[in-house]
Amino acid sequence: xxxxxxxxxxxxxxxxxxxxxxxxxxxxxxxxxxxxxxxxxxxxxxxxxxxxxxxxxxxxxxxxxxxxxxxxxxxxxxxxxxxxxxxxxxxxxxxxxxxxxxxxxxxxxxxxxxxxxxxxxxxxxxxxxxxxxxxxxxxxxxxxxxxxxxxxxxxxxxxxxxxxxxxxxxxxxxxxxxxxxxxxxxxxxxxxxxxxxxxxxxxxxxxxxxxxxxxxxxxxxxxxxxxxxxxxxxxxxxxxxxxxxxxxxxxxxxxxxxxxxxxxxxxxxxxxxxxxxxxxxxxxxxxxxxxxxxxxxxxxxxxxxxxxxxxxxxxxxxxxxxxxxxxxxxxxxxxxxxxxxxxxxxxxxxxxxxxxxxxxxxxxxxxxxxxxxxxxxxxxxxxxxxxxxxxxxxxxxxxxxxxxxxxxxxxxxxxxxxxxxxxxxxxxxxxxxxxxxxxxxxxxxxxxxxxxxxxxxxxxxxxxxxxxxxxxxxxxxxxxxxxxxxxxxxxxxxxxxxxxxxxxxxxxxxxxxxxxxxxxxxxxxxxxxxxxxxxxxxxxxxxxxxxxxxxxxxxxxxxxxxxxxxxxxxxxxxxxxxxxxxxxxxxxxxxxxxxxxxxxxxxxxxxxxxxxxxxxxxxxxxxxxxxxxxxxxxxxxxxxxxxxxxxxxxxxxxxxxxxxxxxxx
Amino acid sequence: xxxxxxxxxxxxxxxxxxxxxxxxxxxxxxxxxxxxxxxxxxxxxxxxxxxxxxxxxxxxxxxxxxxxxxxxxxxxxxxxxxxxxxxxxxxxxxxxxxxxxxxxxxxxxxxxxxxxxxxxxxxxxxxxxxxxxxxxxxxxxxxxxxxxxxxxxxxxxxxxxxxxxxxxxxxxxxxxxxxxxxxxxxxxxxxxxxxxxxxxxxxxxxxxxxxxxxxxxxxxxxxxxxxxxxxxxxxxxxxxxxxxxxxxxxxxxxxxxxxxxxxxxxxxxxxxxxxxxxxxxxxxxxxxxxxxxxxxxxxxxxxxx
Lengths: 665, 305
Hints:
heterodimer; A: 665 residues; globular; B: 305 residues
């Protein structure tokens, strides 16, 4: 009986405890639910955008025919890396990087030396190599990781690329720079310089009669790839490659001058190293930039600033392309890094629910990087259209959304909005710019989403609302437009004709000007008389601009007019998807994205290439050789705002333009 | 990390054989021998290596590492209540801390200064201790140095005694700031007058290390505290404590704490424990210490960083 009573009391007590738990657990879960940000993703349009596969070339993510061989090269004495101590096939001498990098403080220097067994005067030249089993010579590609926990070695994480590229006839060396990782800063010059020291080692491997790589390396076809800080390092290496002295200490002489053709930056940082206090300049390299929207480490598209600084003064066979991958992150490009961009504990703050799978993200890397290297190192030009318009490779690319920037060396800039403060003048004499019935028209610096940061260049911001303010909500004004006019001299100098392509980059924003005032509409001049210069700031209140969450892609008409007044029109959407900004949420805590970033999206311009021949097809008789103006007519979406930049003309190689999605053909 | 573990383990071994020994009480006021915050109480009670607001009453070299405010309320089985308010801040390289602690503990028999039986036995004779501290710290030669001045006030019935007291300490951050270690000479001052010859301040040399928020896995952090104090009469008081925290979301933490110590007061026992919840800059901690006779003591601390 006593036992029963005791049991009964125990059960009641347990029941009360469970009742408390039953209340507390949902309360805690509810609290966490309130504090966690909901998953917000833009509506996926890949089902339609990537519906077609127009490139007939072999899928670049598929293995090639070569058997794959591997080897290690390095100091042969590495304390921490058994593969670089016990398994090296090719021994290398260490290099003195002490003038380019050093520990942040003496205690870190001691910690680092204790751990690695060497300091910055004896940096090892270590690499793991995947190479094809064949006589060669094969193009050489180096890849370098970025910053990470120095004790979690990053260089093995590109094996998936190494094996793929080796099977397709490239040599890939993943460079060990783990000793530059950890609590380091201002060391990206050393990261880039190390790449060039590796190339010196490779020249030796290729030239040495006893080397297993003797004569197998094509030192005239070299590419450098880098991830994160390594992504900036490849730009630094590209710049240093053609310098005779280290810009920050001219006692360090350079003698590199390798035949580097191509650079690939994967989710790079930018500006951590500034040679002689200036942004790193780059000229005459093919340049591929890829970056994920949901990068939890480099959370803005930093590489765009470097992309802008890649120039082609020699008008050689160069091009550059930047690809923004929706829902990709920072670490999944490297199998050693994974989906948590801030390390294992970042599961507490990074929202990884929206990420594409690791397999899909790497597949994108495999497709684009291999195609880029095939096109630029082995002249497989059938892959070039992918870098102009990703929609041509719908079957190859993982099903997510992409934004592509593109420019080739033939590009002639008509309006880049950098040269002066006159909004009516283009970049070169003979180009004039006019707006008609616009609610917003100004040139400004293109922002990054990080508060206070920008993309380092200007663009024009154009906003319109075709509705006339008033009680009559059906009243519409003439569609707003923005026109670029060419003088005869420019047209002649650039040799514009049917083979010329109109190129510009554009990105819609979420802002929408308020309805147009009748006075503004009536004041706007017509097509013939409408040379409306930028008006001085009106004293009347401008139409209110508000952000809208419109997920339907906007559209507009591109209108070309020749000197005879013949007008031809094509829809913008035929040449790319003018999507609204893609929604990005990086953090789990509600409100943290808003505190850290100015916008829940990144303004990434999409490049549109419109062959002038398409206008002639749309309007028989249209004469591209006498092109007098191009107009962006905002007639397909009632209201909106766009950034527009890099308007110009290119004489693209036919390889870039065929095959083409959409267009008027 | 291994060195830190060795330190905590060796102090832990020191605690076990001496924890059960009862103490004679020849020092006063007892307020100086009670833990100040709930987290300190839960982790063994001593604070020679603790940062933040605990340092105002612990090691002054560690004040000012962050700006914070804390407020505690505590209750003993006898009905005695205690509380504290403290704040710390940094002005340039100088850390400053201010705090006041109070014990209101009616006695059964009026004795001045009071003995620790006021914490376990309910009485009717009004008695209270008060300590008001101001502390400052600065960096010099790679170490953090600090000093504090304290006004002590003990009242029993109509008897009133007061005395100034001082602490001096030195501290250093280790393991990239995960751990702070310090040495402090506490409660320097003259004997607190009272009945008979009065009672000496509990002057002691304390060595301690403390750390928290060390991530051991995706969702869990650990923290630990280890201290050894040697009182001027040669008595040794080791204490160790540990903290295990679940961090399900950035800025949110649920902590479970435990400690073991050699008690300094006769009314105290060896075991301590507690829980805490942190919400960004706010935290609410509960601490418990085992007391002789009538149950334990409870303390709640609210902290704003």
